[in-house]
Amino acid sequence: MTRYVAYYRVSTRRQGESGLGLEAQMSAVRAHVGHAPLVAEFTEVESGKVNARPQLEAAIRTASLYGATLVIAKLDRLSRNAAFLLSLRDSGVDFVCADMPNANRLTVGILAVVAEAEREAISARTKAALDAAKARGTRLGGDRGNLATVRALGNVNSAKARSAAAAAHALRLAPLLADLEADGVRSASGIARALNEKGLKTPRGRQWTAVQVKAVRDRLAVR
């Protein structure tokens, strides 16, 4: 059965405190998911003009962690926000709207085309400026002739990318590990067993072991 993570947004703190608009969104989401598990709910109290969406980021991380589908009540309130649309499109999580059941990552990608068109226009202008600078004799770029240096730098960047991905996964797990420890599950083997029972996988899609749990704890300890 599909699992869901819900994301709601209200535009003012008064709406957030009073529930105005929020209750309708919750009702729409719960009607859409029916009896399917709703593993988490996140509410953003923010203006639509502000691109920073910490609760959206948390919702996406949680959906990714559980392999769940992100669900919102109404797309029309958010469709003008390019940052929101691109976050959804690039998140890698499945996505659905209660008011537009056929909307998905593809739909969101289409809606983001307008925003991307402007980015491409900026890129084209930048390239034209660089071409003009090159024509004037300005030296562009770095040392591309030293292939050994370039290769070594690529290896370092690859290792950094893998390390960053592992650190990000550890951060997504941190709240769940804290909850398990608060419930008295403190041993690495006990936590591994609990994660497996919840249907969670390691970054490589495997079952958890005590060794992998210890590695996550070590990463969190050095933050």
UniProtKB/TrEMBL annotation:
Alphabetical list of Gene3D superfamilies matching this protein: Resolvase, N-terminal catalytic domain (3.40.50.1390)
One Pfam family named in its UniProt record: Resolvase
UniProt xrefs under SMART domains: Resolvase (SM00857)
Record key words, sorted: DNA recombination, DNA-binding
Residues in Resolvase/invertase-type recombinase catalytic domain copies: 3-137
Xref: InterPro entries: Resolv_N, Resolvase-like_N_sf, SSR_resolvase
MF-aspect GO terms: DNA binding; DNA strand exchange activity
Record-given protein name: Resolvase
Species this chain originates from: Nitrospirillum viridazoti CBAmc
